[in-house]
Amino acid sequence: QVQLQESGPGLVKPSQTLSLTCTVSGGSITTNYYYWSWIRQPPGKGLEWMGAIAGSGSTYYSPSLKKRTSISRDTSKNQFTLQLSSVTPEDTAVYYCARARRVPSTDYDYRGQGTQVTVSS
Q: CA-CA distance, 89 to 66, in Å (whole number)?
């Protein structure tokens, strides 16, 4: 059973960089065929795919967020990380990490419980 757990600050100030880490257990993030994704859901809105890192290490980003987003990984810790720069209150959302079989997609076969991130001064 694959388990994912998000961690990071729940409050970020405008213009700062949001940084979240996803710790994966029960499966390796270097396994081929899977994409380790970040998805978010702003209040009252639907799921938004942000980007992913493949088992190969290749990265994929939503065109609308590409300029502000960076996804990396630490294979020794089986973790992958999201960094979103220059945040605004519109980036307030529940952020999820997930394992997916294709990109871009909000479909997944495993997902973390999510972490609330609020952007406010």
A: 18
